[in-house]
Amino acid sequence: MPDNKVVMIIDDDKLNLSMLKDVFEKNGYSTITAEDGNEALEKINSNKVDFVLLDLILPGLDGLSFLAVVKDSAATKDIPVLVLTSRDSEETREEVVKLGAVDCLIKQKTSPAEVYNMVTELMAG
Asked: Which strands, in side-by-side order, build the sheet including 81-85?
């Protein structure tokens, strides 16, 4: 079981948010959720976060802008960010990795259990 690890899940799709939250909490993680980039920015700056799952298409501050701000801040730049998106293109993957994300997964091709497994592997180092 993780030692008080906190995963932030940012997605405006309530069903996806709920499924991801459930799989992490069932495995002993704490979660913080946000449905838009501005809310996520507030929460990441006021909470201890060990890992971020980020959707790109968000109301308000979009995922790319959120990622750029997080990776530009001394307080949050070392938090790993895994992007989950419906944008299935190599250009999108290259762009998010260039901005500092650890990787980019396509929502339609990845189950919540697969996301969980990838996050635990990445957090284990």
From this structure: 30-34, 6-10, 51-55, 81-85, 103-106
Which of 62, 53, 57 minimizes the C-alpha distance to 119?
53
**What is the set of domains in the chain, with CATH numbers?**
6-124 (3.40.50.2300)
- Encode pLDDT of 94-118 as tens digits: 999 999 999 999 999 999 999 999 9
Contact 53, 82 (CB under 8 A): yes
Q: Letter for the amino acid at 115?
A: V
- Residues belonging to the chain: 125
Q: pTM for this one?
A: 0.95
pLDDT tens, position by position, 14-70: 999 999 999 999 999 999 999 999 999 999 999 999 999 999 999 999 999 999 999
Q: Three-state secondary structure along 19-67? A: HHHHHHHHCCCEEEEECCHHHHHHHHHHCCCCEEEEECCCCCCCHHHHH
Residues 6+ apart with CB under 8 A from 107: 16, 55, 84, 85, 86
CB 49 within 8 A of CB 78: no
